[in-house]
Amino acid sequence: MAIFGTVATLEKQACHKKYGKVFDFLKTHDLAAEFSGMNPGDKKTVEIDGSDVKAIFQVYKTKVHSLARLEGHRKFTDIQYIYEGQEIIGCSDLAHIVDEPEYNEEKDIFFTNANKQLSHVVLSAGEAAILTPEDLHAPCMMIGEPQVAKKIVFKVRVGYKSDL
């Protein structure tokens, strides 16, 4: 299941060599400058290590739980970091899929349904979740009322070993 908490906690719990470039980016990059001028609905991608590690900066309005879509990936692990705001991410194990999802290989994503109630992870500013291909997830769910959130979704290629 997903690993979540502050960046300091994730560094202790997760394999630093695999995710080290993400943690280094969070500690050394000017995140405020990247988000400057972005409005709800905007996204931009920053390559960190070619196509193996990238950061997708997003500004969006959180949504009601019924509108969240359960998604999964095959080629990349997501590290979802909340820069500003908070959200709930619903999580389920890949084994709980009840349908045959259509996989979009170009975008490395599929949307699906699960036969178990989702576990809910609450993330606030400065916290992140590591979601491997075994972790189905429904991000961007609101807490209370919809709010604008700023998030970075890091994509780390499965099997990435650049700094081992």
Description:
The protein is an alpha+beta fold and 164 residues long. It is 15% helix and 45% strand. It is built from 3 helices and 12 strands. It has helices at residues 7-13, 16-28, 31-35, and strands spanning 3-6, 43-49, 53-61, 70-72, 76-84, 86-93, 103-104, 109-112, 119-124, 127-131, 135-141, 148-157. A 6-stranded antiparallel sheet has the order 1-10-5-12-3-2. A 3-stranded antiparallel sheet has the order 4-8-7, with no helix packed on it. A hairpin with a 4-residue loop joins strand 7 and strand 8 (109-112). Helix 1 packs antiparallel against helix 2. The chain is globular and about 40 Å long. The relative contact order is 0.29. The model has no long low-confidence stretch (mean pLDDT 92).
Feature tags:
single chain; three-stranded antiparallel β-sheet; 164 residues
Q: How much β-strand is present in the residues?
A: over 45%
Total strand segments:
12
Largest sheet: 6 strands, antiparallel
Q: In what order do the strands lie side by side in the largest sheet? A: 1-10-5-12-3-2
What share of the residues lie within helices? 10-25%
The number of helical segments is 3
Q: How many angstroms does the end-to-end distance come to? A: 24 Å
Shape descriptor reads globular
- If you compute it from the alpha carbons, what radius of gyration comes out, rounded to the nearest whole angstrom? 15 Å
Structural class: alpha+beta
What is the chain-wise order of helices and strands?
Answer: EHHHEEEEEEEEEEE
Runs in which pLDDT lies below 50 for 5 or more consecutive residues are: none
pLDDT averaged residue by residue = 92
